[in-house]
Amino acid sequence: MSRPEILFPLFAELETLDGVGPKTAQVLAALGVARPKDLLFLLPHAAVDRSRKASVRDVVPPCTVTVEVEVGGHLPPRQKGRPYRIWVRDAALEFQLVFFHARGDYLQKLLPTGARRLVSGKVELFDNIAQMVHPEHVLAPEDAAELPLFEPVYPLTAGVTQRQLAKAVGSALARAPLVPEWIDPNLIAREGWPDWRKALGEAHAPQDQAALAFTHPARQRLAYDELFAHQLTLALARAHLRRGQGVASRGTDALRRKVLAHLPYAPTTAQTRAVAEITQDMAQPLRMNRLLQGDVGSGKTLVAFLALLTAVEAGGQGVLMAPTEILARQHREGLLPLAESAGIRLEILTGRDKGAERAAKLAALADGRIHILVGTHAVFQKDVHFQDLRLAVVDEQHRFGVAQRMELGAKGQAADVLVMTATPIPRSLALASYGDMDVSVLDEKPAGRQPIKTVMISAARMDEVVGHLARAVAEGRQAYWVCPLVEESELVDYASAVERFETLRAAMGDVVGLVHGQMPVAEKDAAMARFVAGETKILVATTVIEVGVNVPNASIMVIERAEIFGLAQLHQLRGRVGRGAVQSTCLLVYQPPLSEAGERRLKVIRDTEDGFRISEEDLAIRGAGDLIGTAQSGLPRFRVADLERQSGLMAVAQSDARALLAVDPDLTSPRGNAARVLLWLLDQDRAIKLISVG
Ligand SMILES: Nc1ncnc2c1ncn2[C@@H]1O[C@H](COP(=O)(O)OP(=O)(O)OP(=O)(O)O)[C@@H](O)[C@H]1O
Fold first, then answer.
1. Which of 579, 584, 610 to mutate to test the pocket of ligand 1 (most atoms within 8 A of CB)?
2. Closest Cα to atom 23 of ligand 1
3. What domains can you pick out in the chain, each with its CATH number?
4. Which atom of ligand 1 is found nearest the CA of 266?
5. CB-based contacts of 515: which residues, under 8 Å, 6+ apart?
6. With a 6 A CB cut-off, is 543 part of the ligand 1 pocket?
7. Which parts of the sequence belong to the Helicase C-terminal domain (predicted)?
8. Which pLDDT tens digit goes with each residue over 76-133?
């Protein structure tokens, strides 16, 4: 489907806008403004009161004021480095305009003696004389209308001025067409929201401070538009995936029974429930698109494996994709005995497989001799063919976005998709990231786990930390030691893993191992393997161990410079211990002095092990944009909507979007067509391609 014609002017080149040349266009591009329409959604974040006063005498300096003046006379600097002064007089008072490093001929032109000018800027008292240093605006009285009484302030990037931006926005606004309404009329009426064009006008021309608040109807509406477009995309993706002729994979329970009998423990209630939800979904002829969300250590891997067995029981194959080589290998090690007990073949495929060995694996995969494949991204390479892929499990996919999920489904005719994430996220964010999926939650940890003892300790007491560690190692325990960065940064004195490794090794000998992101993969694996085998007792690491690493015997976690880590990250890191039956300890080592905010954050970690609570606190402290690092999280970057403060709108948008698609799956009704316009405006048009009817 092509772009609606009414939107053409908004999709023209930026240079077609007033006051935008090639240079400005480049600067705007850095702001994420590619087309005139993007300017519409670049809302002012503040505004300056430029209401006209008769005299600077009417205000109490220092303060921004806008007055009309008559230029009295110029006082060029008598010495280099001194300012250039110009006497002016408003209705009641004489004062000075002050310029540093300004050229006299330029100022003579701007403010000729005897002329009348509207000047606006900050006045302050200097030697009891009112002065305005570098007025922000100087206008001829006949141009006064150019300066609104309440001047919007746009987020700026170097290289473009407020005035240029305001002009470009104005020019884009003039192109905003009358659009059909895409929001549910009942909702509009209930909320008292303006129509789209009016909302844009009001948001860009605030008349008072209240107009800048996220609660203002114009802003609420524009935020809702954004959330609605996003949820519509997710709902379309969901409908599309489910519509893709799914295969009903009905298990026989035969393999699962064998594996469960072999396990040294019983699944938790939550695991059993999740498996039931998943297998029920797999038995449907619709394609499954499901998220398995579970806090650290809640036992997601077993759930995924039982789902994979269901695919095999139904006569098909399954694949489990991990984000890193280390994790893929760990899954293989953990699952191999279980696969053997079920009498099926499980293989691993990563970027390291080459030549004849790889070819043999691919052949075995293509004719169905391999039942379950575990691996990295390599499992989705073009030449990897399954005989009958029924289920794709993706581990730790908070690094993927909706677009990648759409691609993933394309492998195998209509494989069911199960995504595992250990990142507990608040509901509003979960809806933003995973609104296209159905969700199973593991909200229970396996029995017998002891709470982790978490303490905050100053780096000044490093000797005690090392002493504690030495005693624990002597008792046969294992520990992780996490450092923030690999190489000593020139700017910030972060502890470096390499350096820490060397000092610990000097103190404790070769029971100390090292693993960091810059190491060659083979070395990394070998270091991990030595730790898993218990050959090394202390593993100094960077955050590469953050996600998913499982060494149940490790019961101590030292995190150095804990105050600079994010809460979610600390929670993930700490989750590496407390996986066995012994009491585990987590030492949050901070560099004093600890800031108030730093202390508050570390205390959150110290006081709870509940990932969902931690994520709520994190959201409260940091804000949604930061929370999972939007760029890599797949969480869309909302331009207008504020996920923290407008989170309520997200749920409304989701049900509204699903409701619209229920009655108009192809978006062909008048409201459906209006929604298409919205999707184009907000760069969600790829969703339209998912609709069968163009
Ligand atoms: N029901 C259970 N009872 C006891 N132990 C279990 C149970 N289920 C899983 N485990 C064990 O708990 C540990 C953690 O499981 P798993 O690695 O699947 O956690 P996870 O949910 O993937 O957590 P993370 O995201 O932190 O890696 C493993 O050693 C696993 O064998």
1. 579
2. 297
3. 5-46+168-213 (no CATH), 51-147 (2.40.50.140), 254-442 (3.40.50.300), 453-608 (3.40.50.300)
4. 1
5. 524, 527, 528, 531, 539, 540, 541, 542, 544, 545
6. no
7. 481-620
8. 998 888 899 999 999 999 999 999 988 889 999 999 999 999 999 999 998 888 999 9
